[in-house]
Amino acid sequence: MTYITKPRLHHPTLPENKLGYTRRDYEGKVSTLCAGCGHDSISAALIQAFWELAIEPHRVAKLSGIGCSSKTPDYFLGNSHGFNTVHGRMPSVLTGANLANRDLIYLGVSGDGDSASIGLGQFAHVMRRGVNMTYILENNGVYGLTKGQFSATADKGSKAKKGATNKDAAIDTVSLALLMGATFVARSFSGDKKQLTPLIKAAIAHPGAAFIDVISPCVAFNNHAGSTKSYDYIREHNEVVNRLDFWPSRETITVDYSAGGVIEVPGADGSILKLRKLHADYDPSDRINAQAMISSAAHKGEVLTGLLFLSPDAEDLHAHLNTFEAPFNKLGEKDLCPGAGMLEKINAGLR
Ligand SMILES: Cc1ncc(C[n+]2csc(CCOP(=O)(O)OP(=O)(O)O)c2C)c(N)n1
Ligand code: SF4
Ligand SMILES: [Mg+2]
Hints:
Layout: H1 38-52, E1 60-64, H2 68-71, E2 81-84, H3 90-100, E3 105-111, H4 112-116, H5 120-128, E4 133-139, E5 142-143, E6 149-150, H6 173-179, E7 184-189, H7 193-205, E8 209-215, H8 231-237, E9 238-240, E10 242-247, E11 262-266, E12 272-277, H9 287-299, E13 303-310, H10 317-321, H11 333-336, H12 340-350
Parallel strand pairs: 1-2, 1-3, 3-4, 4-8, 7-8, 9-13
Antiparallel strand pairs: 5-6, 7-13, 10-12, 11-12
Helix pairs in contact: 1-7, 3-5, 6-9
The structure holds thiamine diphosphate (TPP), iron/sulfur cluster and magnesium ion.
């Protein structure tokens, strides 16, 4: 409950990261979500990822829409910037914030209702514009907060808790992100923290639009037989295409990866991503093949998880717009006002 404050004390031997912070320093308020909700596991993976990367919390801006999923930024990174926007409008607010200050690390948190129903247009545009962010979609196939209506990601033929069958075709958000030009596309499962945490770390390091769809069961409204977003269904149909490990720049790699099937991908910032290939036919550098494999798996009722696509030549919105590097709040009057002569020239050009 929000009125219960977390005790500040912690065990003196809790491990510290390079900055001297413990995982407790990356936590937020006590969660008000239902016990067992997948969204809380995603918050735990986010805490782990930011702690392991030793990112100073004040360098992070968390933005979300409306829904149980969009409430979660209150439950992690309590010392970061945060903005709980309007339903489905997180992407445009995140884009604006990013344009005003590119020095922060942008984290968008959304739900399937927030992104695939009311916010579908915003979702598509933020991907195609290549906004530098990590966009986490906590996908449970229902509107959890408003008591379990089917969302646009619910599979056709899947059953609601009270027995109704979903007759509409599902929107597959990873396919859409690929189609829209996202340069990092992944899918994971809230019950697989080992897979999700390195994916989040790699997404944070990615210099463009990074999208992770996380299947996150809603225990209150979508965890029964007949649901294709339940813990049991995902455990039985999860087809993991690869596993990855991520090393930030200048860190010694301590694990031996001489075994076959490992792809090494150097990041622009000096980081290294190692992909252990688990699926013989899966090539995450081929957008068209990725799209075909995702569709074929969905046709068989399987859920492909892992890093599904990574573009080696990612670019972000600032590169497209040729914007000023310094954050707007650091600009003085001299930088902001071009002067009367320049204004006159601009006006003359418009006449
Ligand atoms: C403009 C507007 N329309 C409708 C609502 C009602 N509403 C609140 S949350 C929600 C759906 C949330 O679903 P999702 O994004 O999947 O989040 P979840 O609760 O499942 O995590 C809806 C329809 C609203 N708050 N604002
Ligand atoms: S209603 Fe569903 S999504 Fe919302 S907190 Fe409960 S389990 Fe999670
Ligand atoms: Mg939902």
